[in-house]
């Protein structure tokens, strides 16, 4: 059975890695068009398929759905920043529901402090960078949702140094997007960081959640 699972499902992770890593090197292709948009979405879409096959129960469906909305958001961002952000927002709401369903039984003061910092500082930083640009209030609202997602992930029963760290990488990536749009940081800096942080964050979230769900199903302890 484990060997069969490897044959049936791990290739989705390999396909995700190939798509996600290779996209970084072709992202600036000026004639990419539709194929480049699909390439961009493929990395996280393959993670969603992996989660759909390997995840279990309602939680498995939730992580697969959150990832798929992320993949759709990746594609839509190339057409409309607002539409793409809206799709990501739906994915974050689904992820928050997943993490709240799996709250950690005991949260230490340091863990709670980190979660509150993510919740409060993420929209504040976004606002300081984007004000008074057009749609700066939407940037704050969206960043508040991203911060809430990361805070929920950090205090969930999933491994903090995989799922929690992945969510924090997601936050940093999004803040770097706002820094680029507001010209707070030069494109030479943000272009090297945004995609690697985002994709690595999604990969850590997907594998961390799925492995934990499977370990729970077979009665193995999970670490984190």
TrEMBL record:
It comes from the Bacteria. Its main location: membrane. It holds the Pfam family YhhN. It is found in: Membrane. The keyword NAD does not apply. Keywords: Membrane, Transmembrane, Transmembrane helix. It is a multi-pass membrane protein. The chain crosses the membrane at residues 12-27, 33-53, 60-77, 83-100, 112-130, 136-154, 161-180, 192-213. PANTHER family: GH04784P. Belongs to the TMEM86 family. This is Lysoplasmalogenase. It comes from Qipengyuania qiaonensis. The lineage of its organism: Bacteria, Pseudomonadati, Pseudomonadota, Alphaproteobacteria, Sphingomonadales.
């Amino acid at each position: 059975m484990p060997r069969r699972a490897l044959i049936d499902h791990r290739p989705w992770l390999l396909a995700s890695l190939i798509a996600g890593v290779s996209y970084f090197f072709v992202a600036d292709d000026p004639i990419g068009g539709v194929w480049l948009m699909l390439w961009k979405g493929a990395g996280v879409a393959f993670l969603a398929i992996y989660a759909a096959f390997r995840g279990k129960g309602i939680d498995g469906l939730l992580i697969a759905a959150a990832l798929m909305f992320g993949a759709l958001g990746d594609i839509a961002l190339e057409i409309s920043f607002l539409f793409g952000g809206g799709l990501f927002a739906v994915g974050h709401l689904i992820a928050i529901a997943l993490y709240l369903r799996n709250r950690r039984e005991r949260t230490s003061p340091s863990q709670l402090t980190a979660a509150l910092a993510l919740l409060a500082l993420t929209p504040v930083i976004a606002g300081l960078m984007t004000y008074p640009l057009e749609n700066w209030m939407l940037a704050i609202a969206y960043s508040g949702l991203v911060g809430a997602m990361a805070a929920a992930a950090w205090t969930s029963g999933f491994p903090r140094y995989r799922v929690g760290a992945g969510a924090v990488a997601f936050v940093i990536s999004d803040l770097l997007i706002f820094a680029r749009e507001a010209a707070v940081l030069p494109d030479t800096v943000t272009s090297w960081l945004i995609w690697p942080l985002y994709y690595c964050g999604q990969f850590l979230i997907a594998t961390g959640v799925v492995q934990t769900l499977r370990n729970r199903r077979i009665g193995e302890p999970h670490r984190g």
